[in-house]
Amino acid sequence: MSRGICPRVNSCGPFWILSAVLLAVNVPDADAYSCHEVRTAFQLRQVGPLSRVPETPGTDVDLLVCKHQGPSCCTRKMEESYQIAVKRETLHNIHSYSYELEHIISGHSDAFQDMFQYLLSFSQGHLSSLLEVTYSSLSRQALPHVNQLFSSLSLYLKGANVSVEAAVQHFFNDLFPLVYTRLINPGIEGHMMVGSEMGDCLRMIRQDVNPFGSHPAVMAQELSGALGTGRQLGLALEEGLEVMNATEHVILSKECVKGLVKMVYCSHCRGLTLIKPCVGYCLNVMRGCLASVSELDQTWRRYSILLEQLTHAMAGHHSLELALLKVGDHVNEALLYAQLHGPLITATVDKVCGLSTGEPTGMQPTSPEVTTSSLTLSSSLPSASPSQPLPEQWQGRLAQLRKDFLMYLQRYKSFFAALPEMLCEGENVVDDATCWSGDDVVKSYSGRVVGNGLHAQRQNPEVKVRSPDPTLAEVKERLERFTQETQEKFPNLGQIEAWDELSSGETEEGSTTDCDDEDGCQASGDGQEMTSQTNGSSEGRPAGRQPGGDRPHDNPSKPPSVRVIGKSSSGNWAQDCSLALLFAALCLQWTLF
């Protein structure tokens, strides 16, 4: 172009020389306001069709968001594309920060459920082995009832509407006919069928006859407490996932989207594609956009504390592992109790059910029959008690799982309050001089920086918050209700101290025993249980009744014949002493005769 003019300049007057000089001056200005950089950014960030971006800035552009005086590289269509893009980018950024927390919750929810199912399977296997080795006469018929019991417990831990108390009582109801015909009175086994009317009668009267003492009630109480906290922890983690899902799909209001476009893309309209927002400006925009999300902060903090308390409860005073591992002990003790009180049980059943085969064999003063081989086998059997804990690799895994979970809970307690700040960190903003304020390039943001939450947004100069997000408000209310109901259901959660080591092999602080779980100290409650059978009550445990109702067990003038199969759990010294005294009395009688 200059080549075509220059020849004319030599042949023309001063007017043309002046015109050429002015044109040469204006060319650099046109290049400075080129939209090349804007087109490049528009394409790289996949904002929309590149055809929407002009080659050169326009001077008469009617924009809705990115309004400013002077030429602009933006159009109405570009603003529409910017709104779609900024919503997509913001939700993606929110998801990138919430993903780890969501993954932690879902991962630990699965891990805890896997742990629960392993413990159930471990305990079920030990109980089945106990019955097969020690009580072989009834094991085959009892195994379906064992499977049903643990199936119910599994459903309960998964959140199903199942009663632990009912499952335990149903198990012992089904077990009673087998115990009565195969352990207490094996001689009448051929005279009745367990599935007959007499078998139904035995099931119906089991709780009234009370053939197993307080062991079913104690077992149900321990399982209800321990499994209850485990079940509630699983439900709580599901509630947390619902909150995270609602957060990731938060609806950004029109005012929010306009504020985001102004913060992220309006500088492009002036050709400033590399300038970044000021930190304070970004905080105002993000806190305005996430005002309803920030309202979850206090509710989430209380929820996090609840998770900690449930974890401590499951690992400490209501240890789920110990409760499940003691199921075999409770069943074994219940069967021993039934055999020791066989004569009175037989007399009561004969009156109620009319089950008579002559004089009950259990009432004849014959010599006691103790299955020595069973005693020997049961001594080597891995019993479901703290004296035979979980495999070492699983103990370490459980302790580490709890420890990691509690550590992550501490880290994410303030997640919803900190989310706007996390979105305004790093490469997204500039904390130094020269940053974008939404209207111009400034050395520092001069606007007032507001806090989190809906109330604080009244003073927000960047984003107007007209009403709370109804979906998030509903999520908040539901989480608050869940937390409140859990605290009412477990009123002592806040009083349970943290178990620092969180290992089933550790003794809690304040314990009065000097031994650890592997020494069988956790079974010390058995001694209290025997006291309840004698005195009628025991602190912290349901009071047991003697067979046949509330009547005390009157010792007959002659010691009854007792055929005892099985072995008392470690630490149950009172029952062992009863057996020893009984045998001593019998030996004395034989000596006299």
UniProtKB/TrEMBL annotation:
<keyword id="KW-0449">Lipoprotein</keyword>
<protein>
    <recommendedName>
        <fullName>Glypican 5c</fullName>
    </recommendedName>
</protein>
<dbReference type="GO" id="GO:0009986">
    <property type="term" value="C:cell surface"/>
</dbReference>
<dbReference type="GO" id="GO:0005886">
    <property type="term" value="C:plasma membrane"/>
</dbReference>
<dbReference type="GO" id="GO:0005576">
    <property type="term" value="C:extracellular region"/>
</dbReference>
<dbReference type="GO" id="GO:0090263">
    <property type="term" value="P:positive regulation of canonical Wnt signaling pathway"/>
</dbReference>
<feature type="region of interest" description="Disordered">
    <location>
        <begin position="485"/>
        <end position="569"/>
    </location>
</feature>
<feature type="compositionally biased region" description="Low complexity">
    <location>
        <begin position="365"/>
        <end position="391"/>
    </location>
</feature>
<dbReference type="InterPro" id="IPR001863">
    <property type="entry name" value="Glypican"/>
</dbReference>
<keyword id="KW-0336">GPI-anchor</keyword>
<dbReference type="GO" id="GO:1905475">
    <property type="term" value="P:regulation of protein localization to membrane"/>
</dbReference>
<keyword id="KW-0472">Membrane</keyword>
<keyword id="KW-0325">Glycoprotein</keyword>
<keyword id="KW-0654">Proteoglycan</keyword>
<comment type="similarity">
    <text>Belongs to the glypican family.</text>
</comment>
<comment type="function">
    <text>Cell surface proteoglycan.</text>
</comment>
<feature type="signal peptide">
    <location>
        <begin position="1"/>
        <end position="32"/>
    </location>
</feature>
<dbReference type="InterPro" id="IPR019803">
    <property type="entry name" value="Glypican_CS"/>
</dbReference>
<feature type="compositionally biased region" description="Polar residues">
    <location>
        <begin position="529"/>
        <end position="538"/>
    </location>
</feature>
<dbReference type="Pfam" id="PF01153">
    <property type="entry name" value="Glypican"/>
</dbReference>
<dbReference type="GO" id="GO:0016477">
    <property type="term" value="P:cell migration"/>
</dbReference>
<dbReference type="GO" id="GO:0098552">
    <property type="term" value="C:side of membrane"/>
</dbReference>
<feature type="compositionally biased region" description="Acidic residues">
    <location>
        <begin position="506"/>
        <end position="520"/>
    </location>
</feature>
<keyword id="KW-1003">Cell membrane</keyword>
<keyword id="KW-0732">Signal</keyword>
<feature type="region of interest" description="Disordered">
    <location>
        <begin position="358"/>
        <end position="391"/>
    </location>
</feature>
<keyword id="KW-0357">Heparan sulfate</keyword>
